[in-house]
Each structure stands twice: as C-alpha cells, then as structure tokens.
Write a structure and sequence with these properties.
Layout (H helix, E strand, L loop, with lengths): L1 E7 L2 E6 L9 E10 L2 H8 L9 E2 L3 E9 L11 E4 L2 E2 L5 H4 L10 E2 L11 E5 L3 E3 L6 H4 L2 H13 L7 E5 L3 H12 L3 E6 L2 H9 L4 E4 L5 H8 L7 E4 L4 H10 L5 E4 L11 H7 L2 E4 L7 H10 L10 E4 L3 H8 L9 E4 L4
Helix pairs in contact: 4-5, 4-10
C-alpha cells in the first residue's frame, strides 16, 4: 500500500508498505479521505514540539471498514467510519476522571505513532465511529477537527443565551462558529484575512470583524449593547489575541483558549478578579464524536465549505509544501485515496 512518510522536516515521501492486518479487537480501515491539519504542517516545517520522526502523518481520517479482527462486534464490514486518533493510557488521574483528552501519556496517531495518510490503517475498533454512508468521505474527514471545536464550545458552556466571539477563522475557529451556532448562540468572528471572514459570514456569523482595520473591542461592545461577549473562544494561538480575549469578555464571562502558543501570556490579575471571569483551556476532544456525527448526518452543520483544496495522496508532498508557505491560499486541504 501507499503511505505518506515524513522522514524529517521538509522530507515527505510516498512510500510502499505492506498492507496491515486487523489484530484481535481491531478493524482495518480503507482510508478514503484525510484532511491536512495545522499540526501536520508544523511537523512538515519542523516547528512541532511533539512530532516524532519518521512517521506517517494524518489524523483527520474517514474510510471504509474492510476487515475485522477477532472479537469485534461494534462494527460491520462495509461500514463508513471516522477515526478518533487519541491513544490514552486509561490509568492516569485524568483518565480515571474520564478526561482522557488530557491523558498524561497521550499519543496521537500521525504525531507520536503512524497515522492515516495511507491506503489502509489498522486500529482498535473503539477508535472508529460509524457515520452514515450518505455523508461524503471528505466531509466525514472533518468530523475530527469539528470535535476539537465542539470540545471548546462545551468547555465554554455555550448555550442559547450567549453571544460568542470567536477569535480566528481558520479551520478550528470556523468549526467553533458552527458548533456554537448549533448550541443556539449568536456568534461573531474576528480575523485579519478578508476571505476567511467572508466564509465565516457564509457559515452564519452574525458579525464579522476585520482585526487588521477595525477595533475588535469596540465592535463587540456595540454588538452586545455594552456588555461584551459572554464567551470568547481564542482559536489563533498568539499571545496578543490570547491576552486580548481577557479584555473583550464580559464580566462574569468565560474565556476558552484552544489555540496554542509556546509563549507565556501575562495574566492581568486586577482585571481577572474584577470580571470574575472563567479562564478555561480546551485540549483535543472528549466524548464529542457521537454528537458531532449526528449533527453532520442530520445536515444541521455542514463543514464542507471549509475545504478549499483537494489533492490525491500522491501529491501529499506538494500539498504540504504549499501549505507551509507564508500567505498560502490554502484554507483546508483534503487528500483523496483512489486505489492505485
């Protein structure tokens, strides 16, 4: 079978490997679509703090079950399924509390172990979730990042009474927009790229703010009748936007940080206490797959417009190179897996 192997930063090759087999408790997934995540791009560029080399990239994966190992009863041959790429220990304190998304020994397929940029992948059956066969594979591949977004919305306790500011209109930010709207909230989106803001408006943002030319704080105060948004979700991963979220949020509001920055961000204690805000981190996802899949299957949310580029697996090296360039026109790329 074919696989996209990242040998070292900037060195992604299409290699031939033996087709895996499903062991006891496992299923073999024939991969039909895999989306390229920002973490794949960071791994390609060599600025990921977590990537193991060499490794087959890819953790946003959808495909068809073609083989079942001994003892598997949760899946059937021919099922369409999406991959939960998180491998947890099940024994540490977070796992014992049911918060396996922050397992102290967490491994993610495509980062710490081989992932899904391959024709076939064998995984434990409980890492696969069935999805209606009427959902296109490329749409199904976006379920995993939507789960990341759903986790952030869940952490923010977003509901119909909330006005939510989403900072950043990349894949995760747009996913947060979709999930917050599905929770009944009114949503504003800020970014510095006009095309991203147009898409945010298309996906239902009530207010879009060009942070390059507009005063975001003033705009959201006007939108909320002077209160400020009750929830601010930071999906950029930059110290300035993370710090600004604390200014934008209403008193008694919630700030959720899902964007990752390696730099420290100062915490203004007087402001923090005066507003009595909740400052929450959001990592990966927990128990979000069934809910997100149901929303996608029902048509209540459709992430397909987020996709801007499509490449066959053979062009994965070109796709990652293009995505790694400053000012890339690619918003979200999906790899297709037509069988050779």
């Amino acid at each position: 079978m074919r696989a996209a192997l990242l040998r070292s930063p900037g060195n992604l090759e299409i290699v031939s490997r033996p087709r895996p087999v499903a062991g006891p408790g496992q299923a073999l997934l024939r991969v039909r679509a895999a989306a390229v995540c920002g973490s794949d791009v960071h791994a390609y560029k060599g600025d990921s703090a977590f990537q193991v080399y060499p490794a087959v990239l890819g953790h946003e994966v959808a495909g068809e079950v073609v083989e079942l190992g001994e003892g598997v009863q949760s899946l059937s041959l021919g099922d369409h399924a999406v991959l939960d790429p998180m491998i947890r220990c099940g024994h540490c304190y977070p796992c014992r509390q049911g918060r396996y998304n922050c397992c102290t020994s967490l491994k993610v397929m495509g980062v710490h172990t081989d992932g899904g940029f391959a024709d076939y992948v064998a995984v434990d059956a409980d890492h696969l979730y069935r999805i209606d066969a009427r959902v296109p594979f490329e749409t199904a591949a976006l379920v995993e990042p939507l789960c990341i977004a759903a986790q952030a919305v869940s952490r923010g306790r977003v509901g119909p009474e909330d006005r939510v500011l989403v900072i950043g209109a990349g894949t995760i930010g747009l996913g947060v927009l979709l999930m917050a709207k599905a929770a009944g909230a009114r949503v504003a989106s800020s970014d510095t790229v006009a095309s991203k803001l147009r898409l945010a408006q298309q996906l239902g943002a009530e207010l879009t703010i060009d942070a390059a030319s507009e005063d975001v704080g003033k705009a959201v105060l006007g939108w909320t009748d002077g209160d400020g948004p009750s929830v601010v979700i930071e999906a950029v991963g930059h110290p300035a936007t993370t710090r600004a979220a604390l200014d934008y949020v209403s008193a008694a509001g919630r700030v959720v940080v899902v964007g990752i920055t390696p730099q420290d961000v100062p915490l203004p204690i007087p402001l923090f206490i005066r507003k009595e805000m909740d400052l929450l981190a959001s990592r990966n996802s927990r128990e979000q797959f069934p809910r997100v899949i149901a929303l996608v299957e029902s048509g209540r949310i459709d992430p397909t417009p987020i996709i801007s580029h499509r490449f066959p697996l053979e062009q994965a090296p070109q796709a990652l190179h293009l995505l790694s360039q400053p000012g890339t026109p690619v918003r979200k790329a999906v790899l297709s897996f037509a069988q050779p």
